[in-house]
């Protein structure tokens, strides 16, 4: 990262924590062994993997053999969903999820609908991005085999009632997976308390190495692998283990969880300041996502009448990096499905900006955003033929 | 630049701060757009001879263009605009406003001939997936000129280019479809990507599909 750059895109990815890097370093050139080899080099590598597995299991309040290492959050999600529903077809072919999941979940579900004749119920969320346990309960059918609902949303930061949904799932004996990729730094991941059967995490969002992920898989669950080969990870994820990655993933999670309470408090102060200042200084702006049930580091704000890419490029001139839900910044030229799902009309979806804070974010960074953004908005608005009102945009919204 | 390189170049999602993903000319017009209203008051009091507005913010872009015409010389004396859209959209409109007002102003007949490609050429280039951002400018301009014709009692000159409007929201005509097909967009999806046809006005999709097939066969032979 360039020295002056103000990086406010931690939900996209985080830098590697130097402590994590240090822990990993040894496993590149020195301890390079294959954990599957029956020799001393291999055994030392296996020991490192075992230790990492134990560290993670302890954090999740799980057993080491309930942790499967994968190559990303996306892969864990694919394994969780495809693996479970394919292995439990005798019970039924119905899946429940939400409209605001990451594409790793949505596209996997769509694939299963299209090519393997599964049926999927996509639960709608309210204006704050919440689903309720009651909605889940209503959607459960005799043939429901899996519920997959994200812990925290990557765009608007809303935290779903996982524990309560888990209770419903348990009562109806339906397996429950949660995509916790955005929750690893700030939330309690105790799977017993959360009532989850499967949980996905990845390294790239928790100051760990990219290209690493894990799936917690409660003992006794029937599941098929999606990658076949040498039988690593108890046959669930073949392929030689990424030893430095696994070691780094465990270390990263350990640090996040240890520092969680203190860091959450710090981030909430900064986040709330950012939100308050932007929404009071700049007319026609509002926060997306739940006001309190949200990630400590997420501020997603809609700025009416202007378009996100233009805002971002202007902010980039001041070396501020954020991200946008605008169609113009997406490969498909579709605006964010999450922003649309919380009921904002298309024209407002284009002006949504996500600031996601992190370990290196300081008050000075926040002040700089607050200093430059009002003028950027004013300038872009003077070029815009659009003149929306907040009440028109939010007026037609459900649950309001 | 190979086309693969161009694709990377187009990726505005890259988060490396200072590197730019548009040409210098685009950048210049994006950060210093020409022919804007200086104040709200100027906008309110601007006496335009023709105003054209196309697009809708719902599908991403919207553009409004005001022109002043010298009735004797038929040249565009002045022009103002507003655009809702990305950097490419803003730069394209700014460039168009320069093209029609420079060198004493463009003659109306010539201004009616401007195509999106002409604007892109002046911008040196646009990333391929940003080409569609330049397609509204010439339409807004044509509309403004037509309004001028109507207002100045020259209704007979209101030619919507002999074209038939297919997408009522975006005012996309059969000519636009033909042009898109000629440029290699031979499926509905490809044409939609280029022109945004049918994004809002879904009722036009069957007719658009038929036209695309017609032009594809005309220019590229039977399927
Ligand atoms: C909520 C959520 N799920 C899944 C993923 C995918 O993770 P990965 O990029 O490691 O495959 C991400 C990250 O983009 C995410 O934010
Ligand atoms: S206006 Fe949306 S991509 Fe250019």
Topology at a glance:
The complex is a heterodimer of chains A (400) and B (223).
Chain A: E1 6-7, H1 18-29, H2 40-60, E2 67-70, H3 73-87, E3 94-98, H4 103-116, E4 119-123, H5 133-139, E5 144-148, H6 162-171, E6 175-179, H7 191-194, E7 198-202, E8 213-217, H8 243-281, E9 285-288, E10 298-303, H9 308-317, E11 320-321, E12 323-324, H10 337-341, H11 346-349, E13 352-356, H12 363-382, H13 390-395
Parallel strand pairs in A: 1-11, 3-4, 3-5, 5-6, 6-7
Antiparallel strand pairs in A: 2-8, 7-8, 9-10, 10-13, 12-13
Helix pairs in contact in A: 1-8, 2-8, 3-4, 5-6, 8-12, 9-12
Chain B: H1 3-9, H2 24-31, H3 40-45, E1 50-55, E2 62-70, E3 75-84, H4 87-101, H5 108-111, H6 116-122, H7 137-151, E4 165-167, E5 172-173, H8 174-182, H9 188-195, H10 205-220
Antiparallel strand pairs in B: 1-2, 2-3, 4-5
Helix pairs in contact in B: 2-4, 8-10
The structure holds pyridoxal-5'-phosphate (PLP) and FE2/S2 (inorganic) cluster (FES).
Residues 72-74, 102, 104, 150, 154, 179, 181-182, 202, 204, 213 of chain A line the site of pyridoxal-5'-phosphate.
Structure overview:
The complex is a heterodimer of chains A (400) and B (223). Chain A starts with 5 loop residues before the first strand and ends in a 5-residue tail after the last helix. The model of chain A has no long low-confidence stretch (mean pLDDT 95). Chain A has two domains: 6-11 and 260-395, Aspartate Aminotransferase, domain 1 (Alpha-Beta Complex); 18-256, Type I PLP-dependent aspartate aminotransferase-like (Major domain) (Aspartate Aminotransferase, domain 2). Chain A has 13 helices and 13 strands. The radius of gyration of chain A is 22 Å and the shape is globular. In chain A, 42% of the residues lie in helices and 14% in strands. The longest helix of chain A has 39 residues, at 243-281. Chain B is an alpha+beta fold and 223 residues long. Chain B folds into two domains: 3-157, Alpha-Beta Complex (Sufe protein. Chain: A), CATH 3.90.1010; 165-220, BFD-like [2Fe-2S]-binding domain (Arc Repressor Mutant, subunit A). Chain B is 43% helix and 13% strand. Chain B is built from ten helices and five strands. Chain B has a three-stranded antiparallel sheet. A two-stranded antiparallel sheet of chain B has the order 4-5. In chain B, helix 2 packs across helix 4 (87-101) and helix 8 (174-182) packs across helix 10. The longest helix of chain B has 16 residues, at 205-220. Chain B is globular and about 55 Å long. Chains A and B meet through helix 9 of A and strand 2, strand 3 and helix 4 of B. The complex binds pyridoxal-5'-phosphate and FE2/S2 (inorganic) cluster. Residues 60-61, 85-86, 88-89, 130, 133 of chain B line the site of FE2/S2 (inorganic) cluster (FES).
């Amino acid at each position: 990262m360039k020295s002056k750059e103000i990086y406010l895109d931690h939900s996209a990815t985080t830098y590697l924590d130097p402590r994590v890097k240090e822990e990993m370093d040894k496993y590149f050139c020195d301890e390079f062994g294959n954990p599957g080899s029956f020799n001393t080099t291999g055994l030392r590598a296996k020991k490192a993997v075992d230790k990492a597995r134990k560290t993670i299991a302890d954090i999740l309040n799980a057993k080491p053999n309930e942790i499967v290492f994968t190559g990303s959050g996306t892969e864990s999600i694919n394994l969780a969903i495809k693996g479970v529903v394919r292995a439990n077809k005798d019970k039924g072919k119905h899946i429940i999820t939400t409209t605001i999941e990451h594409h790793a979940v949505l596209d996997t579900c769509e694939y299963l609908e299209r090519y393997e004749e599964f049926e999927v119920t996509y639960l709608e969320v309210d204006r704050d991005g919440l689903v309720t346990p009651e909605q889940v309960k209503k959607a459960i059918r005799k043939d429901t085999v899996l519920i997959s609902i994200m812990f925290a949303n990557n765009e608007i930061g809303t935290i779903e009632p996982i524990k309560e949904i888990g209770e419903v799932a348990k009562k109806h004996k339906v397996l429950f997976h949660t995509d916790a990729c955005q929750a690893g730094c700030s939330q309690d991941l105790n799977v017993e308390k959360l009532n989850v059967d499967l949980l996905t995490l990845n390294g790239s969002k928790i100051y760990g190495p990219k290209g690493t992920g894990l799936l917690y898989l409660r003992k006794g669950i029937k599941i098929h692998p999606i990658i076949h080969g040498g039988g690593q990870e108890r046959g669930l994820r073949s392929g030689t283990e990424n030893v430095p990655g696994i070691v780094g993933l465990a270390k990263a999670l350990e640090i996040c969880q240890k520092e969680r309470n203190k860091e959450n408090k710090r981030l909430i102060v900064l986040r709330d300041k950012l939100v308050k200042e932007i929404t009071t200084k700049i007319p026609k702006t509002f926060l997306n996502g739940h006001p309190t049930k949200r990630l400590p580091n997420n501020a997603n704000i809609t700025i009416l009448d202007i378009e996100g890419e233009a805002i971002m490029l202007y902010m980039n001139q001041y070396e501020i990096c954020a991200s946008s839900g605008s169609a113009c910044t997406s490969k498909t030229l579709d605006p964010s499905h999450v922003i649309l799902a919380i009921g904002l009309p298309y024209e407002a979806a284009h002006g949504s900006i996500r600031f996601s804070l992190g370990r290196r974010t300081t008050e000075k960074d926040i002040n700089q955003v607050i200093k430059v953004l009002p003028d950027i908005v004013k300038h872009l608005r003077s070029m815009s033929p659009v003149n929306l009102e907040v009440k028109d945009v939010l007026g037609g919204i459900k649950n309001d | 630049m190979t086309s693969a390189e161009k694709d990377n170049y187009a990726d505005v999602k890259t988060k490396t701060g200072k590197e730019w993903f548009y040409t210098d000319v685009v950048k210049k017009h994006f950060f210093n757009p020409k022919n804007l209203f200086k104040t709200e008051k100027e906008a309110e009091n601007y006496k335009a001879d023709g105003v054209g507005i196309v697009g809708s913010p719902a599908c991403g872009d919207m553009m409004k263009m005001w022109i002043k015409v010298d009735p004797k010389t038929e040249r565009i004396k002045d022009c103002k605009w507003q655009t809702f859209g990305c950097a490419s959209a803003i730069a394209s409109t700014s460039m168009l406003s320069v093209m029609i007002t420079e060198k004493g102003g463009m003659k109306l007949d010539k201004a009616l001939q401007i195509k999106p490609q002409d604007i892109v050429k002046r911008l040196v280039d646009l990333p391929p997936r940003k080409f569609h951002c330049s397609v509204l400018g010439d339409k807004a301009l044509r509309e403004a000129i037509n309004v001028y014709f109507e207002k100045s009692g020259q209704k007979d000159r209101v030619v919507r280019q002999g074209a038939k409007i297919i997408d009522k929201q975006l005012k996309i005509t059969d000519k636009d479809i033909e042009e898109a097909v000629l440029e290699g967009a031979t499926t509905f999806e490809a044409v939609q990507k280029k022109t945004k046809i049918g994004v809002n006005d879904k009722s036009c999709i069957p007719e658009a599909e038929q036209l695309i097939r017609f032009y594809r066969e005309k220019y590229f032979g039977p399927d």
